[in-house]
Amino acid sequence: MQMMIGDQFVESVTGKRVEIMYPATCGEVPSGGKADVDIAVQAAQAALPGRASIPSTFFTCGIETGRQVAAALTMKQLTPEPGGNDSMIICSDVDLVAVAIAACALRMYNCGRICTAPKQMIVLPDIHDAFVSRFTEKRLKKESVCLIQHAYKAEGKTGITEYMNE
Fold first, then answer.
1. Domain assignment present for 142
2. Cystine design at 88: which of 70, 118, 128, 163 (Cβ 3.0–4.6 Å)?
3. How far is CA 65 from CA 33, 45, 49, 94, in A?
4. pLDDT in tens, 119-146
5. Is residue 124 part of a domain?
6. How far apart are CA 31 and CA 33, in angstroms?
7. Three-state SS for 162?
8. Number of folded domains in the chain?
């Protein structure tokens, strides 16, 4: 298992793994540490300033990393997200219906009061309108986020998987 840094897959410096538990899949992802972040920042610093085709940069990071990236970028609009606000990046090759359902469920579950609930969704332009339509469609099927929680608890349902499958 590798992580993507600077247009290539690399092993994490620590070699550690983090176990993930998600209703649909279980597995491991690389555990990146400061050394990995430093490598990623260096790759971003080297790649982004000279590319005219990249008008702006969005970076989810800690405050210090954001400072480093901002200092390296020249004439680029930078949108840092210091503190990591759980961005969900949605690419064109996804099952749009499944991702819209999951995005809505993950954002609305427990009234959005979960630190891992995606607080922003970055959607590629070619699927943006279709994603927004499906996300909105899923959201409008429910009367209220709070009522969803209470109704589910009243019916004895507790898992996000049950919510996503409705």
1. yes
2. 118
3. 12, 11, 16, 30
4. 778 888 899 999 988 888 877 665 334 4
5. yes
6. 7
7. helix
8. 1
